[in-house]
Amino acid sequence: GWRPGYSDVIDAESAELAVMSGHVAQVFTEDEAWLAVLADLYRALTPGGLLAFESRNPEARKWEAWTRELTLRTVETPEGTVEFWHETAAVGLPLVSYDTLTRNLRTGEATTSRDVLAFRDEQALRITLEHAGFRIDNIYGDWHQTPPSATVPELIVIAQAGTRPLGRI
Q1: CA-based R_g, the chain, Å
Q2: Do 142 and 154 contact (CB within 8 A), yes or no?
Q3: Please, are residues 116 and 29 in contact by the beta-carbon 8 Å criterion?
Q4: Which residues contact 4 (CB under 8 A, 6 or more apart)?
Q5: Cis before residue 78, ω within 30 degrees of 0?
């Protein structure tokens, strides 16, 4: 069965498949944190187990479309209609900072929060996964298994945990 959770609390060799969804791989903006998650997942997978995740492809430069005009949405809440949107604040690859802005149309109350995502390119993903002990099975550019290129929005990664040397967990 599925077990949602955090990588640092998974029992060793307790899973045949680990999936990181929702671009969660990009929230690990510091290399140390990203490598720690990969080490945790490697430890949690049985030998030959698979890790699958997606990350936005930096070559596609999707942050350029993070503007009010292109991301504006409205939601109905008990406090009234609220509009929200995203705006890119800074790009210093691999990091991209962006703001999420909200405005309650009834009260006028507005908020802004800043987040940062890591846009690791294919080479960086390969290096960090291999450093953690994974073998890359495939990297696709989208969910239709298109090869990675500057025009595809995603990097879909399928990696396999290698056979562990004696004493390594």
Answers
A1: 19
A2: yes
A3: yes
A4: none
A5: no
Say if CB 25 and CB 53 are below 8 A apart: yes
Q: Is the pTM for the entire model greater than 0.85?
A: yes
Nearest residue to 132 via CA among 150, 159, 101? 159
* Residue (of 14, 56, 57) closest to 169 by Cα position: 14
The per-residue pLDDT for 164 is: 58
Number of other CB atoms surrounding residue 115 within 10 Å: 14
Those residues of the chain that have pLDDT short of 70 are: 164-169
Query: With b meaning 16 or more CB within 10 Å and e meaning fewer, what string describes 52-70?
Result: ebbbbbbbbbebeebeeee
pLDDT at 167: 43
Q: In whole angstroms, what is the distance from residue 77 CA to residue 32 CA?
A: 39
Q: What is the mean pLDDT of the chain?
A: 93
